[in-house]
Amino acid sequence: MLIRLDPASDRPIYRQIASAIGESIEDGSLASGSRLPSARSLAETIDVNMHTVLRAYADLEDLGLVVMRRGRGGVVVTGGAGLDKLVERLITEAKRQKVPRARLFEMIELSW
User: Fold this and answer.
1) What is the distance between the alpha carbons of residues 110 and 2, in angstroms, rounded to a whole number?
2) What number of helices (H) and strands (E) belong to the chain?
3) Residue 2 confidence (pLDDT) above 70
């Protein structure tokens, strides 16, 4: 698993970490059942605070991509499993911002 951080980026470090891990899950580099490195180990490897890694792991858990077990670390539950939750969050946010359905579809199509 390769994690590249861009310190000049506007995106918080924990989001960059979560995105990198999420991409590895989605592309199959991290298969279902794969164990994530401990937060301490990953933090030391990429030279960030352990709490930054824990926050990234929490985001991945919120998306349904990993399951965190106290004292045992994180485990990938399945590639793409979190996509349903992500879509729900996208739709909820679009509704909150009063983005018309057609415009949301158009935005997705343009990004695809």
Assistant:
1) 28
2) 5, 2
3) yes
Indicate whether 99 and 69 sit together in one domain: no
Instruction: Identify the helix (H) or strand (E) that includes residue 52.
Output: helix 50-62
CATH at residue 9: 1.10.10.10
In angstroms, the CA 53 to CA 64 distance is 17
* Count of CB atoms situated within 10 Å of the CB of 31: 11
Element (H, E) at 73: strand 73-76
Half-sphere exposure of 25 (CA within 13 A, CB side): 29
Domain count, the chain: 2
Distance CA 42, CA 18 (A): 12
- How many residues are recorded in the chain? 112
CB 112 within 8 A of CB 90: no
Rounded to whole angstroms, the maximal C-alpha distance in the chain is 46
Cα 18-84-26 angle, rounded to 5 deg: 45
Segment 11-34, tens digit of pLDDT: 999 999 999 999 998 888 888 889
